Amino acid sequence: MRVDPGFAAGTPAAGSIAVAPVLARGLAGHRRYTYVAAAAPGELRQAARLFWEEPPPRLLERALAEALATRYAQVYATATPLPADRRVVATLIRFEEADAGAASRAVVAFDAVVTRGGRIERTGRWCATAPIADASGTTRARAFETALGAAVSAFVAERAKGC
Fold first, then answer.
1. Mind listing the pLDDT tens digit for each residue in 110-163?
2. pLDDT tens-digit series, residues 13-64
């Protein structure tokens, strides 16, 4: 399934930021679709026939770079450590469907550390959910697109305020 959240264009401020390759915990890093059934809330399961076009950590990395480009003049998303004013290191915690069934929702959560000059400037966790209206792959992908966009937008909004 393909996910491509869009971000409203902003007026980039001077400065640069680098986005390191995103790490992932557990099944959040797998291309296979992950869900939690309401009947077994403590178990992560993987769908037999649903796969992401890109691994979820790559989706988050790309979303962070695209969203930060609305706020910074230069954004680097590469494993190569390029000189930048700030660096974002993120870990994807959740990228799963919760409560599979009638009240399904896409859940996206990540931790991030922002450094400046080798010192930690900000740490935090950002999370968002979006309802999944039906069982189609397209509907599920759009819900994850919405949740990913909301979580990343909240992160970028804090960056814009200097938090």
1. 999 999 988 999 999 999 999 999 989 999 999 999 999 999 999 999 877 664
2. 778 999 999 999 999 999 999 998 888 888 888 998 999 999 999 999 999 9
Q: How far apart are CA 134 and CA 124, in angstroms?
A: 32
Q: Which two tokens stand for residue 120?
A: 């930690």
Length of the chain: 163
Output the CA–CA distances (angstroms, integers) from residue 18 to 9, 64, 92, in the order listed. Answer: 19, 10, 17
Domain layout of the chain by residue ranges: 13-161
Neighbours of 138 (CB within 10 A): 10
DSSP-derived letter for residue 12 is: P
Report the alpha-carbon distance of residue 107 to residue 132 in Å, rounded.
10
Class of the CATH domain delimited by 13-161: alpha beta
End-to-end CA distance of the chain: 34
Amino acid of residue 116: R
Cα separation of 9 and 23, whole Å? Answer: 27
- Continuous H helices in the chain: 56-68, 137-161
